[in-house]
Amino acid sequence: MSTRVLIPSGVLGLGFSDEALHNGIKARPDIIAIDGGSTDSGPWYLGTGNSKYSQAVCRAEWRKLMEARAELGVPLIIGSCGTCGVDDMVDWMAEITREIATEFGQSLKIAKIYSSQPHAFIVERLNSGNWRALEPELPIAVNDIESASNIVALAGVEQIQQALLAGADIVLAGRATDTASIAALPIANGENIAAAWHGAKITECGALCSTHPTSGVVLLDVDHTGFTVTPMAADAHCTPHTVSAHMLYENADPFHLHEPGGTLDVTNAHYEAIDQKSVRVTGSRWITDDTYTVKLEAARSAGYQTTLLALLRERRYVENARQWIERLHAFLTTLISERLAMEPVSYDLDFRLIGMSATLGAQERRDTIPTEVGVLLTVTAQSAEQSMEIARLCNPHMLHFPLTDHEELPTFAFPFSPVETARGELYEFFINHVITLDNPMQAFRLETETINATG
Predict the structure, then answer these.
(1) Interval 200-248: pLDDT, tens
(2) C-alpha triplet 17, 23, 29: angle, nearest 5°
(3) How far apart are CA 160 and CA 178, in angstroms?
(4) What are the residue ranges spanned by the domains of the chain?
(5) Dihedrals φ, ψ of 224, to 5°?
(6) CA 383 to chain centre
(7) DSSP H helical ranges for 155-214
(8) What is the reported pTM?
């Protein structure tokens, strides 16, 4: 016996093969589990409480999964609703679920797990010492907590299991670990705990652990001694390499994975191809922690940004682009002080050379000279007005600033008009800690509702 989990994709909104989903349904899984997002795309989504993905696309994919759930008569789970997992995004998914249930004429019970944290509770954890910094350690104080626009705790399997015990047909979880929604039912059914967590880690991104990553859909079978993973697309295959490699994905340590309540150790895991499509994994180990901890994520405002983009194509300026922006940066810093009475401590000018060192900045070690280079200037200041004022002061000098004092003014190209693009408010992550809970539900709220759409 085993517990069979169908994972349609790495995240709702990314897409999956309809044929592969149909094959997965035919395999008769015990549950369907999918993730709703993560911190991959930066702090803005948590800071503002918004989804990265298109609502129309999420609704269309969720409609297919709700249809599959009804056909199978099994639970459907989504973790980290709306990318960031704040309470508003759980309610966002609940509204989508109600609309689709009404469309289908479905009656069902939904469970909502709320992960947003009141400032007062986090301050209490901090003051009582029920809190530990992770590496790299970020200094934190009570006043820092108050500056957060949103704080979430990452749920594990225990919170999702409570929702399943409540008889939920659909579980809408706030921020949760990427693996929790997949591992919850196998562990509740008494399968091997290490295998459940390990299998969940391997399949969290759907078919990324296969030879056809964009097909999306994979099937996970967890039993008492290990797990088996099988991609559902006809032309997709899992191999020991594609499966074992996924322990490297978004994980600093390829042999250890920390989750609420313990640590997965795959040091002695064995990966074996059992046929041309499936891989069997055994030998992983689960180490239970003495205390139950959950990770926190928090975002806060870090100013406002405006961007400008200029294109350099004249060979001499392309070859000397780094020296040009260093000279321009110094010139603009003096000009901003003289004209706007602002000192560098109150703003930031960040130049990136697209085509040369836009990704790594000063850490770039390659020294190739492209045909042209884009110069991206990002201005960050304490208000939107200040950011735009600085950008407008920089505008003409991005267009005409010379490489030396003894030459004619050059003219570069602006691809847009107006040149300045207001990016709005900037957010930053500022908590890298776990908190200790007296019980797994202490930092979470579980609410259920029944939708009766049969008329």
Answers:
(1) 999 999 999 999 998 889 999 999 999 999 999 999 999 999 999 999 9
(2) 115
(3) 12
(4) 3-298+431-452, 314-412
(5) -80, -15
(6) 27
(7) 157-165, 180-188, 193-203
(8) 0.93
